[in-house]
Structure formats: structure tokens, C-alpha cells
């Protein structure tokens, strides 16, 4: 499908994991975390990303489509949608 994956730079990956493990999974959704992820999304867009995969179940609770102009792919919602379509097909 000629899809290229662009990931955050190595220097930001540890902070990405820290926010997830120490804050988001604990139900702590701070403006600091939100701003960090929005900055990371902008950096990815600057590097050529056409969309952002929200690959952690907590990220869609932190980042909403209204927060950014780049399209967001909520993997939790997409999995649920495909499972529903599979169950309800003929």
C-alpha cells in the first residue's frame, strides 16, 4: 500500500513512554502531556506524516480531532468498528 511509517525521534520515545506509564494509564490527563503529544504530532507532520496513529488506548482520551488539523487514526475505535462489522456481516 506504499505506506511509510514515521516514528518519533529516539530522544522523545522515553518521554512518550513515561507519560503513558506514569500518567495516562493512571487516569491522569494533564495539559503537559497533551502539549507534549501535540508537539510530537507537529514534529511528525513536519517530517511528512499525513496522519497520526493513536496507537495507545489512552491517547484518544487525551487528544481529540479538534486539537489538531492532521487526521487522527484511533486504533481502539477502528478495531471496535471492524469487529462490529465482522460480527454483523451476512
Could you walk me through the main structural features you see in this protein, from its secondary elements to its overall organization?
The protein has 90 residues and is mainly α. The protein has one domain (10-88): Rossmann fold, CATH 3.40.50.1860. The chain is built from four helices and two strands. The chain has helices at 10-23, 31-46, 59-62, 75-88; strands at 52-54, 72-74. Strands 1-2 form a two-stranded parallel sheet. Strand 1, helix 3 (59-62) and strand 2 form a beta-alpha-beta unit. The longest helix is centred in the middle third of the chain and has 16 residues, at 31-46. It starts with 9 loop residues before the first helix and ends with a helix. The model has no long low-confidence stretch (mean pLDDT 94).
Task: Please outline what is shown here.
The chain has helices spanning 10-23, 31-46, 59-62, 75-88; strands spanning 52-54, 72-74. With 90 residues, it is mainly alpha-helical.
* Largest β sheet strand count, sense and barrel closure: 2 strands, parallel
Rg (C-alpha, Å): 14 Å
Number of helices: 4
Oligomer: single chain
Q: Percentage of helical residues? A: 40-55%
Number of domains: 1
- CATH fold node name: Rossmann fold
User: In which order are the strands of the major sheet placed?
Assistant: 1-2
Would you list the SSEs in sequence order as H and E? HHEHEH
C-alpha end-to-end distance: 28 Å
Query: How many β-strand runs?
Result: 2
Kindly name the structural category. mainly alpha
What value does the average pLDDT take? 94
Q: In CATH terms, what is the architecture?
A: 3-Layer(aba) Sandwich
Share in β-strands = 5-15%
Categorize the overall geometry. Answer: globular
Low-confidence stretches: none
Question: What's the CATH C level?
Answer: Alpha Beta
